[in-house]
Structure to design on (48 residues):
C-alpha cells in the first residue's frame, strides 16, 4: 500500500497573484470605461 501525499497540488502564492493581476487590470479598465461613459452621458444631459 502506498502512502498518500497530503500536499497534492496547492497553487503557490506566485501563481495565484500572477493570474489575478490580469483580472484586476481588466476590472479597472471596465470601471474607468463605465465612469467615462457615465460622465459623458451626464454632460450630454446637462447640455440639452
Amino acid at each position: 500500500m502506498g502512502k498518500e501525499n497530503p500536499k497534492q497540488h496547492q497553487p503557490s502564492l506566485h501563481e495565484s497573484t500572477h493570474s489575478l493581476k490580469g483580472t484586476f487590470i481588466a476590472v479597472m479598465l471596465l470601471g474607468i470605461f463605465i465612469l467615462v461613459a457615465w460622465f459623458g452621458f451626464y454632460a450630454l444631459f446637462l447640455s440639452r
Remarks:
- The radius of gyration is 23 Å.
- The chain is about 75% helix and 0% strand.
- The CA atoms of residues 20 and 26 lie 10 Å apart.
